[in-house]
Write a structure and sequence with these properties.
- The chain is mostly helical.
- It has one domain.
- It contains 6 helices and no strands.
- Helix 2 packs across helix 5 and helix 5 runs antiparallel to helix 6 (84-112).
- The termini are far apart.
- The mean pLDDT is 92.
Length: 117
């Protein structure tokens, strides 16, 4: 039960931070998304994001900041294996399933729903 609580608190805190950035600092959702992906990569590079995921579970692994952490992990794993070329290919290897799923589901949704305007 405690794990659910911390997942809710951490995930909710990330969402509250995003809403504050939009409301108070007048950032666009695209700026907030980019900031969160960058922050996830930075925290992953410092070794702080994986302990956060272990602590908060889905509260840290579901928000977009986790995508930045995954991008960095893929790049670093492939860098160790293939050098600088691996930095470019690693981000595609580790994130390709999620990106592909997003594209496929967006396409299916576009076939089912028609936008207004």
């Amino acid at each position: 039960m405690e794990k659910f609580f911390w997942a809710f608190v951490v995930g909710g805190g990330i969402c509250v931070l995003g809403q504050i950035l939009i409301d108070v600092f007048r950032l666009t959702p695209a700026h907030v998304t980019t900031s969160f992906v960058s922050a996830g990569a930075i925290l992953g590079g410092l070794g702080w994001y994986d302990p956060l995921i272990k602590f908060a579970g889905a509260g840290a692994s579901i928000p977009i900041s986790s995508f930045g952490n995954a991008l960095l992990k893929g790049a670093m794993m492939e860098f160790e294996r293939d050098g600088f070329v691996g930095v470019l290919t690693g981000v595609f290897d580790i994130t390709s399933a999620g990106v592909s799923a997003a594209i496929i589901f967006a396409f299916i949704a576009s076939l089912i729903f028609r936008p207004k305007g």
